[in-house]
Amino acid sequence: MSSYWSDFVKDLDPYSPGEQPQISNITKLNTNENPYGPSPAVITAISEAADDRLRLYPPPEADQLKCKIAEYFQLSATQIFVGNGSDEVLAHIFNGLLSHPEKGPLLFPDISYSFYPVFCQLYGIHYEKIPLADDFSIDLDDFQRANGGIIFPNPNAPTGLLLGLDAIESVLQKNIDTVVVVDEAYIDFGGQTAASLIDQYDNLLVVQTMSKSRSLAGMRVGYAMGSEHLIEGLNRIKNSFNSYPLGHLQIAAAIAAFDDTQYFENTRQKVISERERVVDKLQSLGFEVLPSKSNFVLVRHPQNKTDLLAQSLREKGIIVRYFAMPRIDQFLRITIGTDAQNTLLIECLKQIL
After folding, report:
1. C-alpha angle 208/280/307, rounded to 5°?
2. Strand 149-153 versus strand 127-130 pairing type
3. How many CA atoms are closer than 13 Å to the CA of 132, on its beta-carbon side?
4. Model confidence over 116-153: pLDDT tens digits?
5. Percent of the chain, pLDDT > 70?
6. CATH of the domain at 124
7. For residue 288, what is the enclosing H or E element?
8. Which of 6, 25, 221, 287 has its CA 20 to 30 A from that of 249?
9. What's the whole-model pTM score?
């Protein structure tokens, strides 16, 4: 009964995750999961870790995983924070590092990850949305105003557009008194990580997930990289909330995924190659396609209503993402699938059009 709720619960507008249908005969291109399963080494690692040790609490700091991530990005383990998916990592960041009303509002793009305003509402953070340019790109010059922090995805979601490191470095240089968070959920599909800038800028925090390029959406592993004092702040939050965010199986899976670099590179390149093929086919059908560097594309067709296209695809067993939001309500976001899934998508669109 809602009468038992705390007052603030009544006004919450929770995040709505992408649909997860519980039927098998669906081509699911709506939530940006990797179409290729995790490395076989991951499955082996999970199996080997599923033993009597599950009666024990996992290591609270996930030290082995932190060391593995640090080695991969040429950082130190003290510059790594891990959590139960990047959403939990982001929640701690919003709560602990991005609420500075005396400096100004938190800034993020108006078309961006829709969890950002939810976190702001949850933690009472004053924020301001900065409009994207007419071509849907982020112009970081528009962020040059008083702020209590800055966060943006790179590549952006749901547009897929990428910023170069020079643009990110410029905003870091001009905002040395506040934290700048670069949310890199999709960086492995065409961008260069800002982790290389961490040793130069102690106000930079880079967030990544293992849900996309490393095919571990079902294991919930995310991490942040930044200066030791930022990571210390996140650890203080984590240890006041949940000291054991990652279980034995999650840690084992994540370490194995980082170890199998060949599998990672092969599947990553398959997604990139298929994305370029899908873009070419969609454009030949008259679609406008934003220049994505992610594992999805944002598209619209000038002669067809987007919500009707989404419904027609659903009737053919293909689910894509439709956002009934200002500025992008005429777009569909389509996850890049396997070559067979993408071919089916194109053939169905030909029939619909």
Report:
1. 75
2. unpaired
3. 22
4. 999 999 999 999 999 999 999 999 999 999 999 999 99
5. 97
6. 3.40.640.10
7. strand 288-289
8. 25
9. 0.94
